[in-house]
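Narrative of activities, Objective 1.

The group set out to show that a structural description can be obtained from nothing but a protein's sequence at a throughput compatible with the screening campaign. Below is one input-output pair from the validation batch, recorded exactly as produced.
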Amino acid sequence: MKRAGSVTSYEDFKYVMQDTGNLYLGAKYTYEELLSAEMAPFKLKAVINHYVLKETAPETTLESQFYYLEKDSFLFEVFSQLKTKVKVQTRTECRNIWGKTKYSYKERIFSLTELTGMDSAKKRASGMMIREIIISKLGMMTFSV
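Output recorded for this entry:
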C-alpha cells in the first residue's frame, strides 16, 4: 500500500509477471498505468495503443473492462486473438454437517467466451471478482499490429 498525500493507492493486484508461455497482469491496473509499467512487453503496449485505447478510456481498469466485456464488441475480438483468459474469484456456499452455512472463495480460470456468456446479474450473484488477466505469449506473437 502506498500513500501519496491523502490518497491511498493499493498495489496488491498491480503486477506484470511472465513465464515461458503466458503473461500475467494484475487486474487493478489501468491502461494508463500499464503503458507506463516498465515490465510490460512492448508488443502489449503497442496493442493497447493501436486497438484498445480507441475503444475505451485510459483510466479504465482491466478488472472493469473484462467484467463488462460484451461478446459482440471489437475488444472481445482483440482479446480473443491474444488468447486471453481471466482468473476470477467466486463466492461459494458450503454447508457443514450441522447445517451451518459458510461462504468461501474459490479461484477459477475462465476463457473469454465463458466470461462473456454470463450476464451481469449472475456475476453479481456469485460475488465474482476479477483478479488476473492471462495473455498467451503465442497469441501475442502471432498478433500483427
